[in-house]
């Protein structure tokens, strides 16, 4: 038997065992769907890769955006040796072993490309272990991360690599991937007679939420479970909904999704937009955000952005926090939604924060003069003799009398300027 034919049979058998998402992974840039703004024909990065001059890269994007696919296409496009590790399981010893081999290749004028999946999981020491060899060209680094590299990748390493942002795939891109999977006879389901209803197709694309892997996994399950009439598998909406898992929200409680979404919530309340505010609240709660975290944000909002324009807002926010703590979830969403709508509809004033910041500026930038004598208590005879409390005017006795209550060096300073809606 021809050995090459045997190898082909083994490869075909291995491919048959792979999930659909792995089988359908693009092998070339021409097969890659989406990201034309980064890797389209004629773009500088694609030209560099096609000329086998790939720079060190940090690929940043959400799950299913194509980071690993991007790296594997580079592996197929380069004459360099392609090494791949996952930061989940690899350590410094693994890195050193790869570097040792790369140094040997470098001595023979051969290059090494190192792909580190989930590079954000490497700690500082592990990232530092790679740095000298990226700098001297022993290896070309390609790191993939779902987390903001500004926070998760050492600045020294970041400065020696290009950050490539891969956004979540559009619905149009997902539909194109779906179409290819349905009709590809070798890697997809082209050997089946599959009929998919328009509403089922739309439901699948919407539920995938920009994640090609999620789309293909759901499609594979739907095809496996779909009723078959003769030689036709029919994917209707009911079948598709049963195959779909929870929609991916692109929300990580410890990552960028968390901070970006709560920022959108805060700014929607500040803008007095109740519709947007309640939407972002629902999105965070649906993703499993900690309810008391949201309640704390509301308490801050009540003073930071509403303040004296509606002092009841602080009471509402604190009451919501207490209600959620007392009731728990899921019913606690009533209190959170109640407070959100109240805060969004309330008149706004930032005079509280402005006044405090101005006062704090003087606290830090001027000398700390003693408390004026007339404002000090005088519980002993000695303190009275020293003038403590002398000439203090008890405001309740005579509201017309004004006394200076600031230290001498700050006499006449004003910190609080009433907002338009302060009361």
What does this 3D model show about the protein?
By secondary structure, this protein is α/β, with parallel strands linked by helices. Among the domains are: 35-165, 3-Layer(aba) Sandwich (Rossmann fold); 171-243, Orthogonal Bundle (Helicase, Ruva Protein, domain 3), CATH 1.10.8.60; 256-345, Zinc Finger, Delta Prime, domain 3 (Up-down Bundle), CATH 1.20.272.10. Helices cover 51% and strands 9% of the residues. It has helices at 3-17, 20-23, 36-39, 44-50, 67-77, 92-107, 124-135, 149-152, 155-158, 171-183, 198-208, 212-225, 237-243, 256-270, 274-286, 291-306, 312-327, 333-345, 351-365, 381-385; strands at residues 57-60, 81-86, 112-117, 140-145, 162-165, 193-196, 228-229, 232-235. The chain has a 5-stranded parallel sheet, sandwiched between helices. The protein has a 3-stranded mixed sheet with strand order 6-8-7. The longest helix has 16 residues, at 92-107. The radius of gyration is 31 Å and the shape is flat. The termini are far apart.
The level of helicity is 40-55%
SSE pattern, N- to C-terminal: HHHHEHEHEHEHHEHEHHEEHHHHHHHH
Distance between the first and last residues' Cα: 92 Å
Give the total of beta strands: 8
CATH H-level superfamily title of the domain at 35-165: P-loop containing nucleotide triphosphate hydrolases
Please give the CATH class of the domain at 35-165: Alpha Beta
Number of discrete helical segments: 20
Shape: flat
Largest beta sheet: what is the strand line-up?
A: 2-3-4-1-5
